[in-house]
């Protein structure tokens, strides 16, 4: 029988991770890499799996590759702790891995922000999260890693549920963290933007998210998210200048 391993990286995820773990009970194996949680996250994870590893945090890509090495399944499903798999997607995943028509599958997302479903603004694109272990690995970037796959990629229909932000404080904390890490990576790549370029890029990002991608149809949440995306572009660019 084809074996499915779920890999999850975590840090202080006690609020969300039980929902994630409950949703992947259908998998043959769950592998969790925790980087120094102080809120009891590892203990919660051990209720669902013995494969809980407490380590340092080398960055998103490296941590997920560590988890990938420990997984023993032929197929890998990569999740973050604030994501979960609804029943229709569970069935679709099982069908896909047994059919083995593709080397990997991208899966659409359903974003939930401040407790509200987000339908517009380009936030619900698909991401490659299901793949054959022998044909894929993560690129080793510090945040928002992607899977590098050697083979054809299909697409599933049902979405992963993603509870992204619960309140404005959490959003601002992540804005600061993500833009700092993204700026460090851009400096290493030699991609430094000036003030004018940063301003123009952020204005275009807001217009594209809020108007062209219909973010305004999500009401107040759509406006907040469009501003968040624009600010992310702006502060990431400014931080590249402070790091050079």
Concise structural overview:
Helices cover 41% and strands 23% of the residues. With 244 residues, the protein is an alpha/beta fold.
Report on this model:
With 244 residues, the protein is an alpha/beta fold. The protein folds into two domains: 161 residues, Spore Coat Polysaccharide Biosynthesis Protein SpsA, Chain A, CATH 3.90.550.10; 76 residues, no CATH class. The protein contains seven helices and 13 strands. A hairpin with a 2-residue loop joins β7 and β8. α5 runs parallel beside α7 and α6 packs antiparallel against α7. The longest helix is centred in the last third of the chain and has 24 residues.
The number of distinct structural domains comes to 2
Element pattern in H and E = EHEHEHEEHEEEEEEEEHHH
CATH topology of the largest domain: Spore Coat Polysaccharide Biosynthesis Protein SpsA, Chain A
* Stretches with pLDDT under 50, minimum 5 residues: none
Fourth-tier CATH superfamily name of the largest domain: Spore Coat Polysaccharide Biosynthesis Protein SpsA, Chain A
Biggest pleated sheet: 7 strands, mixed
Assembly of the depicted chains: single chain
Overall, the morphology is: globular
The CATH architecture of the largest domain would be: Alpha-Beta Complex
Number of helices: 7
Q: Strand order, biggest sheet?
A: 3-2-1-4-9-6-12
| Computed CA radius of gyration, to the nearest angstrom | 18 Å
**Mean pLDDT across every amino acid position:** 95
- CATH domain class of the largest domain: Alpha Beta
The rounded distance between the terminal residues' Cα atoms is 53 Å
Strand content: 15-25%
Structural class: alpha/beta
The total strand number stands at 13
Helical percentage: 40-55%
């Amino acid at each position: 029988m084809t074996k499915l391993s779920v890999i999850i990286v975590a840090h202080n995820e006690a609020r969300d991770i039980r929902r994630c773990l409950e949703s992947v009970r259908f998998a043959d194996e769950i592998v969790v890499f925790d980087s120094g949680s102080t809120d009891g996250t590892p203990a919660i994870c051990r209720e669902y799996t013995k494969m809980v590893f407490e380590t340092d945090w080398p960055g998103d890509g490296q941590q997920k590759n560590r988890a990938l090495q420990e997984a023993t399944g032929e197929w890998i499903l990569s999740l973050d702790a604030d994501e979960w798999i609804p029943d229709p997607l569970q069935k679709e995943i099982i069908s896909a891995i047994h059919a083995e028509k593709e080397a990997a599958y991208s899966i659409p997302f359903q974003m939930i922000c401040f407790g509200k479903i987000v339908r517009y603004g380009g936030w619900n694109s698909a991401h490659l999260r299901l793949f054959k272990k022998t044909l894929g690995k993560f690129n080793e970037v510090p945040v928002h890693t992607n899977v590098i796959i050697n083979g054809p990629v299909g697409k599933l229909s049902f979405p992963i549920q993603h509870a992204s932000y619960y309140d404005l404080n959490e959003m601002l904390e992540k804005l600061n963290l993500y833009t700092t890490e993204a700026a460090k990576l851009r400096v290493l790549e030699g991609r430094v933007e000036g003030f004018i370029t940063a301003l123009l890029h952020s204005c275009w990002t807001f217009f594209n998210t809020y108007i062209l991608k219909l973010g305004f149809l999500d009401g107040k949440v759509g406006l907040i998210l469009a501003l968040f995306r624009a600010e992310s572009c702006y502060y990431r660019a400014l931080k590249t200048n402070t790091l050079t």
